[in-house]
């Protein structure tokens, strides 16, 4: 595992794992995995599948045979939720101790695998990089105005309650230094859906992590069904206040005394 550099010092070439949760993504998983494997950083891939009845797991097993040592499948017994899928994937990755950076992203095409390059370039001087829709250069394509409005207001609400300048708290395209994830106690993350994305980023800020945002273009899925529903949105709203009230378990600040929650 590489150690954190001094400010301005470049990090060595990193070993990268992309963690992707799936449920009924047979239409998308092969294209996603092959596009990730083709990036110049040569990431490995861990797919966390929640017992998809459409054969997603079988497709990942076939990909693992085609790309030995680079593709893994973590199968779960049923549809247990996005947040718990990432917790399971992060725990398996940390236990293996093989990677310096863990990238989390969606499988449905909304996160462009080519953007992994920009996240990894930014993490040379950061602990957590967010692929952001709401910084200059970032955008959302293909969404109706109603969904854009809900997303923008949701981020404004979360930023206001948590008193942070981070623009995209609900986005799910992130690159984590494994040193940071190891300090954060991933088992302590309680939220699911959008609430999970808010909680994990805020816990990193509380821990004094260097968090930066790089612009991405977010596109709506072309194949398969969206997992978004009213319950996920309501859970995110209520989770923000719990996240604010509760300290980050086992999050030891890198720079004690710093205003972590307001740093960028």
Automatic annotation (TrEMBL):
InterPro entries: DPM1-like, Glyco_trans_2-like, Nucleotide-diphossugar_trans. Belongs to the glycosyltransferase 2 family. The keyword Glycosyltransferase applies. It comes from Blastococcus aggregatus. Keywords: Glycosyltransferase, Transferase. This is Dolichol-phosphate mannosyltransferase. Residues 18-182 form the Glycosyltransferase 2-like domain. The keyword Transferase applies. One of its GO terms (biological process) is glycolipid biosynthetic process. One of its GO terms (cellular component) is membrane. SUPFAM superfamilies: Nucleotide-diphospho-sugar transferases. GO terms for molecular function: dolichyl-phosphate beta-D-mannosyltransferase activity.
């Amino acid at each position: 595992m590489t150690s954190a550099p001094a400010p301005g010092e470049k990090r060595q070439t990193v070993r990268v794992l992309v963690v992707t949760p799936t449920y009924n993504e047979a239409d998308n998983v092969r294209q996603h995995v092959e596009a990730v494997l083709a990036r110049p950083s040569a990431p490995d891939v861990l797919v966390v599948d929640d017992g998809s009845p459409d054969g997603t797991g079988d497709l990942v097993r076939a990909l693992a045979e085609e790309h030995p040592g680079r593709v893994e499948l973590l199968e779960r017994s049923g549809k247990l939720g996005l947040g718990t899928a990432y917790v399971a994937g992060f725990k398996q990755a940390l236990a293996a101790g093989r990677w310096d950076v863990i990238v989390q992203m969606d499988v449905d095409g909304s996160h462009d695998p080519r953007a992994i390059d920009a996240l990894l370039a930014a993490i040379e001087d950061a602990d957590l990089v967010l692929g952001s829709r709401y910084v200059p250069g970032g955008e959302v394509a293909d969404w109706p105005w109603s969904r854009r409005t809900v997303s923008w207001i949701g981020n404004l609400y979360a930023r206001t309650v948590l008193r942070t300048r981070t623009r995209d708290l609900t986005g799910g395209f992130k690159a984590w230094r494994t040193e940071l994830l190891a300090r954060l106690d991933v088992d302590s993350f309680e939220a699911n859906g959008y609430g999970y994305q808010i909680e994990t980023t805020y816990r990193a800020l509380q821990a004094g992590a260097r968090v930066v945002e790089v612009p991405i273009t977010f596109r709506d899925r072309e194949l398969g069904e969206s997992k978004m529903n009213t319950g996920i949105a309501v859970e995110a709203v209520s989770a923000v206040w719990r996240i604010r009230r509760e300290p980050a378990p086992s999050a030891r600040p890198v720079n004690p005394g710093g205003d972590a929650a307001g740093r960028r």
